[in-house]
């Protein structure tokens, strides 16, 4: 039977279990281990779990070991990205099964690098001591002439998600030399659709995740103000009233948020779209009671959250379930920095 309350202690146990499995070098099949580690470590932080549950020194050592370093200063401009690998296995050249070609060298990618820097920030590691010059200098090679970013140095699609990763990395490192902000801004503005939401690329359908990446990127770069609704929304570089409408229409009859019209409500959009509303200052228009009720139907009796009511929990939806409850000001959860997707205290760096 579904619980009527947010089961904080069960969620801590759920994450603790995940944490114990994570830093093991024997489970390197999963290429997105840094992303999974980010969910676990940031989740424990958001849930205000006891400090002793995370061995910060071991985590920092593991994360730092995943950074790609150039062999020489001149290599920094060879077009490769010297960020973080997703996991140990991604550090080695791999056989491409489709054509048997051996990739010359595997590379770091923007999403893993965002997660790596976020983890280090959350555990309070001194970010000024990491090799940020290699990250930022080589990251410039990933930005395209239209302002978008590729996640790796070659043969990948570009879209808003990777602009967000680049923006968040620069913001956390306190150094914007890794990107051209004006070009990124122009690309993002082009992604706002006729209905007010944002698509992943100019002209594509509005989507909750893309809308989150757009609005938080603009906010982190300083192009839009906080609580824009109470200020001069008219003069904003984006169409704020239309965006507000689009966001509010995504709260469905069951109380949850959908990522696109006519899709079922899904736990994670309570964070993606809830965060946009928070930045705009429109969070007060959410039917909080109904959202609270929907989210509880996705809470697993073993801890964690599922995508849809009654499904098995997964780490991704668990994490965004916690962030959604933090946005609802649930007691026992730390307040959230929606722009960085971590606790406000971790974001400030105390
Ligand atoms: Zn989802």
From TrEMBL:
Gene3D superfamilies: 1.50.10.20. Pfam families: Prenyltrans (PF00432). Transmembrane segments: none annotated. One of its GO terms (molecular function) is metal ion binding. GO terms for cellular component: CAAX-protein geranylgeranyltransferase complex. InterPro entries: GGTase_I_beta, PGGT1B-like, Prenyltrans, Terpenoid_cyclase/PrenylTrfase. Its cofactor is Mg(2+); Zn(2+). Belongs to the protein prenyltransferase subunit beta family. This is Geranylgeranyl transferase type-1 subunit beta.
